[in-house]
Amino acid sequence: MVYIILILIFVFFLIIYMFFKAHHDTIDYRTILDERLPSNFNNFRIFFISDIHRRNINETTIKSIKQSIDAVIIGGDLTENGVPLKRTSENIKKLKRWNAPIYFIWGNNDYEEQPEKIHSMLLEENVTILANNHKDIVRGNETISLLGLDCCTYSEARIDLARKDAAGEYFILTTHAPKAFDELDSMLKNSIHTVLAGHTHGGQIRIFGYGPYERGGFQKSRYTNKLVSEGYGYTTLPFRLGTKSECHVITFSNYIQ
Length: 257
Prior knowledge:
Domain Calcineurin-like phosphoesterase: 44-202
Strand order of the largest sheet: 1-12-2-3-4-5
Number of strands: 12
Protein name: Calcineurin-like phosphoesterase domain-containing protein
Structural class: alpha/beta
Strand content: 25-35%
Helix content: 10-25%
GO molecular function: UDP-2,3-diacylglucosamine hydrolase activity
Transmembrane segments: 6-22
Shape: globular
CATH architecture: 4-Layer Sandwich
GO biological process, one term: lipid A biosynthetic process
Number of helices: 7
CATH topology: Purple Acid Phosphatase, chain A, domain 2
Number of domains: 1
Largest sheet: 6 strands, mixed
Mean pLDDT: 94
Distance between the termini: 65 Å
């Protein structure tokens, strides 16, 4: 009987801890050093957030970021089935704190909750939707291109369309699912300088380090910087274990300080 009580107590506190982890924000401050970055974009800074799902973005988290932000990128799953459109709209408004342009990439769950209404709301909030297309950002006589893939079940990821007529000397690709980049042929992969992705939640709940997906994190190969976020929200259950609820402040540097 004592063992049963101890097990129940353990389970009770484990559930509390998992709920806490799912709602306790981590801000990943990261500098990506890349000598290929045009010099006019030295210290270009992105706020990247993915997989918000059912969560309300914590304003305290947003207000704690003191650096200037040049672009906000939402890496998909801004919402999901059953989330009121008003909540999603309020989350967008919170991301306007820095008066920076906001870019959105579709995630699989975004298509589950009236995508036409989401599309209209995003346009009303002056959010740029990157779905197999790009946005060139110009500083002086130099340009970088933000590419967005529509990589979900309901659409086909088309890197050729995303890159078409892109004028950038440096490509930053956002795809909701990292495998959309991983499945590109080597030549296309090597042409992308930085990749931002989400979708996997890092497995969300990992038992003894094991989960359905790999942990999120940063990898640097010879040609490409790749960041896979563990996501801000959660899906199905409001719990996390062995993963972080995170968003990212990414500063790009070309080594010239």
